[in-house]
Automatic annotation (TrEMBL):
It is a single-pass membrane protein. CDD domains: PH_OPR5_ORP8 (cd13286). Residues 1-25, 38-90 are annotated as: Disordered. Its main location: endoplasmic reticulum. This is Oxysterol-binding protein. Residues 78-90 have a biased composition (Basic and acidic residues). Gene3D superfamilies: 1.10.287.2720, 2.40.160.120, 3.30.70.3490, Pleckstrin-homology domain (PH domain)/Phosphotyrosine-binding domain (PTB) (2.30.29.30). Residues 122-239 form the PH domain. It comes from Astyanax mexicanus.
Amino acid sequence: MKEENLFRRRFSLCPTATSPPKIDPRLLTRNLSYGGDNELYPLSPGESERNGLPLLKDEVSPAQSPGSASESKMFIGLDKDSSSPTEKLARKESLKVQKKNYRQEKKRAAKELFSALKDPSVVIMSNWLKIRGTLKSWTKLWCALRPGVLLIYKTQSSEHWVGTILLNACKLIERPSKKDGFCFKLYHPLDKSIWAMKGPKGETVGSITQPLPSNYLIFRAASESDGRCWMDALELALSCSSLYKLTTKTCRDGDLSSSSESSHILQLLQSTALSDHELLHSESMVFLQAGEASQVETVSEENKGLIWTLLKQLRPGMDLSKVVLPTFILEPRSFLDKLSDYYYHASLLSQAVLEESPYCRMKQVLRWYLSGFYKKPKGLKKPYNPILGETFRCCWLHPQTDSCTFYLAEQVSHHPPISAFYVSNKKDGFCISGSILAKSKFYGNSLSAILDGKAKLLFLTRDEEYVITMPYAHCKGILYGTMTLELGGKITIECEKTKYCAELEFKLKPFLGSSCNVNQVSGKIRVGEDVLATVEGHWDGEVLIYEKKTGQQEVLWNPTPEVRKQRLRRQVVQFDQQGLKESERLWKQVTIAINTKDQNKATQEKFVLEEAQRQEARERGDRPWKPHFFTLNPDTNEWQYKHTDAKPWDPDCCLLQFEKDGIIQTKERRRRQRNGFTYSQSWARQHKVSRSFTELMDML
């Protein structure tokens, strides 16, 4: 009886414990719209066809058949005393049919549930989590999340089962904690048990561990990013029932094979159906931009099937660098190009070099760092994965200092995907070098894009080096809900010479947070252990800094319309002067197809580039790839620009800085000496700065 009650609660398609309504079998027909074989429903009066199909003779409604008045009374439970023996027999046969369907449905549900529990492929997420017991001590256990259930084991091999949590009756909430990591809580709102009676292999007694609460569990993940991913995955597990109807509809339309793994995952909880409004909302999946002023881009009809094609490639924990992405979610430019977005306000670095105080220099560097995040594309888009050997060149003109900031990037490795870059403005006294390993992880209803690497900012005249790290991007709502993009994680900007350090934390939106909690950032500037200032705000809006010493507050960064007008003008190498593997020329056909919304053409052109890269790899064989402009330092394991020039700008001999064929260099005047005196100073006085700038533009 307990088992029967359990499945009755678990699957809402099962009949309730109340007596079933007495329905004439002749008044029942199959539910063709849902696709079930055992689903019956009564015909409404006056209904002669269902789903566009004419009804059979014996399926005509009571209003259209002889004796409909008496049968209608029987249908609504009236005139029971005057029921004929034939009507009583019909009611008895109807009850037998319903009981039979009930038993079949219960067996089917149990079979699907236990089959899914034993299937290793139906796992949304699995990892080690700490769980707090009734004695308030923590135990590290292996947790495997599957649709509708959370399995807990003592070992990763899933041999020692501890217990199974039924998620259908659980609520999920973030739990604050003073300790490291991220806590969340699964609980029953009415303080009922959340545990299943049996294990996936029929176990009735779990492995011995510390006592665990019966109506809730508190979990601790190793980091905030891991905890957020677990919460997203739990939301996915709780929503599998709603996704199933969408999947079955897509299967009928031919977009997704009903035998695929992604379809099988969703077959467990088909009892909860989507309303028509929810179904239309789910099919009109949109890509949203981060922030309150989100921009919406609706996926077209031809692209809806491509979403499911993409999902069939994905497994929880998979690295997305190995996944072929549909072209409609691509931003029409290369990742090498996108990395240059951080230098539209490079003039802030020119000002930082001139600051006399190391604190003011750090504050100015932090202001420049924040200036690189507000520039975003329309919608949630992913740039092209660069081809091995691909390069990108551009520069920004500085009208105030009559100088130029040069940028060069190259894809130095494909597996793993590593992009190296070098930025230089020798006249203004700074250069930046670094490399980025782009990693993406899929977590069921969310994914994280991690930029693993460091950038090193060098002030040439001061010999100060600032080591900078990057936040990660977290996208959630891939399968259901609103798709949003956030930045998360802790970053640092450290200068070893001055001992100054800036720390920032990009905060993901709390589970129960409001719109004001979106895109929050906080941090501090310290020297040694002394905190000099704190930072609070939103990384896509206003950020305030509070001076500890003076108690004053000022705006550190705010991308107002006036500030955006101060963006430096970017110059890209002319198309006819670009090499075969420069980004704009390499992806030209793909970009044209995406901009004209010809997704088939874009997919074909993208495939041509990817296949050419595979052919080059086959021809290269075991020979390692040698980048053109960067080399790997074996001591530091860092990629360095081959033509790095870290010498400070000398106005007596340096005329201008320029880039030619990927080599950033400085034009110097020839030194002529007579009687031991240098004539370079008098030569410099005869040439104005404007002429140097003209020569620079001619070389570009």
